[in-house]
Every structure is written in C-alpha cells, then in structure tokens.
Amino acid sequence: MTGSDWLAEQFEEQRPHMRAVAYRMLGSLAEADDAVQEAWLRLSRSDAGAIENLGGWLTTVVGRVSLDMLRSRKSRREEQMGPHVPEPLIDTADGSNPEHEALLADSVGLALLVVLETLNPAERLAFVLHDMFGISFDEIAPIVGRSPTAARQLASRARRRVQGAPTTPDADLARQREVVAAFEAAAREGDFEGLLHVLDPDVVLRVDGGLLRSDETKEVHGAEAVIAQAMRFQGLAPYGRPALVNGAPGVVVMPEGRPFAVLGFTVAAGRIVEIDILVDPERLDRLDYTVLDN
User: Fold this and answer.
1) Going by DSSP bridges, is the β-strand pair 199-208/271-278 parallel, antiparallel, or unpaired?
2) I need a labelling partner for 283 at 20 to 30 A (CA). Which of 17, 23, 209, 264 fits?
3) Angular region, 106: left φ>0, alpha ψ -120 to 50, beta rest
4) 121-137: pLDDT as tens digits
5) CB of 181 closer than 8 Å to CB of 209
C-alpha cells in the first residue's frame, strides 16, 4: 500500500465522524459533504507524517471550514427575514438509513438544528465541538480566535439557548407516529377539534420559504393560529407522504411527484409542540427523495 493509499484509507475511516460534525454545524448534508471534501484537499496538501492525531486534526479542520461557511452564509441570508429551517434528512416512515442514524446520533432532530441556527457561528462551533464531540476548549480557542475562557463562555451561552428550547421529543416513536397521523387526518378533514386535540396550546409553527417564497416565511405561535395556517393548506393534505424527517415522524408533500414542502414534527408529552416546514424550492431540490420510491 502506498502512502497516498494509506492516507486515503485513514481519511475514509474518519469520514462519518467529519460528516456528523459538519452536519451539526451547517444543517445541510450537501454543505457538510463540501466541508469534508475541503478537509481532504487540505490534508492532501499537508505533511501528513507530522500529524500526531489525524482524527483530531481533521475534526479541527472541518470545524474551521464549517465556521467559514457559516460566516459567509450569514452575510448572504441578511436578505431573508424570519425563521430558517435546516435541510432535513429524509427516510422511509418505517426505517432509517444507517448513514443517517450516525448523523442523527445524540437526538439531532430538526428542532435542535433550528435552535442551533439561532446561534452565532462562533457559539455554534463551540457548542457543537465541545458539548457534542468532547473537544477541549484549548483546541476550540484557536479556531474561533478567542482564549479558552472566551470559548467556554461561547459554549455556555449556546447551551442556555439550547436548554431553554423544547427540542427533546417523546422517546416512543410509535406514539409520535400516531400523533402525527392524527394531525394529518384532522388537517385533511378540516377538523378543528381534532387538530386542537393533538396540538400543544403553545405549539410553534415555523415556515421557511427562502428567498424564492419569502412571502411564506413566518413563525406562528399558539394552537389556534397554527390551525388557521393548517386550514390554508388543506388542499395539499392528500399529497402528503409519511416519512422520517431527521429521525422523527414527518411528511413530504409531493403534488404531481414534485416536492412542495417537507414537514418535521416535534412531539412531547403526547402533543405536537413544534412544526418546522421547509418550502424553499432551492433547498428542496437538493434533498434526496429516492428512498420514498422504494
């Protein structure tokens, strides 16, 4: 085996870990893969023999690349007002892709990614690398250009934001499916009482239309306000296809076989507490729906 073959093999062993880091940082599998590819390019230009801990080195590089991508993205998104829903991972309703399971370990559901989107890039990196992957603040500090103490403060601020959000769903996936199915049935029938029964009184609905459907972007609070929005889209309900969206029950709306929306639900204490909807055509086109055809 040549040196380059050995290096490529070592890199492939680290790829799942790097993708997991980058997906938590970026909320987009396509961008995560771009970050991993950039890490490979940087490794191939480096003196690999001088790297004592390849896994740690690659994690640091992917973190730095992701941070740069987040900062660039933030400046581009200044035109968009309202919530930003990350690009979800879609699987069949009765099972998930093993690769996605690795990416979604530690309960990285859509609701948690939405909260991470509210953090500034440096806070997000400090929280993801330290709280999710156990990277020390001494290692994080040079990536964000801060002291270890300042990096610790970044993670602490991010942690308070994450802990203050209802991002932890019920553990019983079958029960979650029942609640989401009841929501779908009530939405199809225009059943106000049925919707009221499955929605938490303080439910939050986020819709992200991106720049192309910016008029659809909104955040709505409260069961009655969410029901009013659900009634507006009652005609699309028959086109909903059940799916796992970031490991939790969700719906992909595909009129005439074309993706119109992806809905992710967070179910806690037997009721829906959050609904996150992506209707941005640009990002919808980047998602993989082939699994739903199997």
Assistant:
1) parallel
2) 17
3) left
4) 999 999 999 999 999 99
5) no
> pLDDT digits over 232-248, tens only?
778 888 888 999 999 88
- C-alpha–C-alpha distance, residues 199 and 271, integer Å: 5
Sign for the pseudo-dihedral over CA of 276, 277, 282, 283 = positive
d(CA 135, CA 153): 15
**Cα angle: 110, vertex 67, 274; to 5 degrees:** 15
pTM: 0.86
Q: Which domains does the chain have, with CATH numbers?
A: 3-80+115-163 (1.20.140.160), 173-293 (3.10.450.50)
> What is the residue type of 218?
K
Which amino acid appears at position 45 of this protein? R
Alpha-carbon gap, residue 144 to 161, rounded angstroms = 19
Tokens at residue 148, please? 């270890």
Helices (H), 47-167: 54-76, 98-103, 110-117, 121-127, 137-144, 148-163
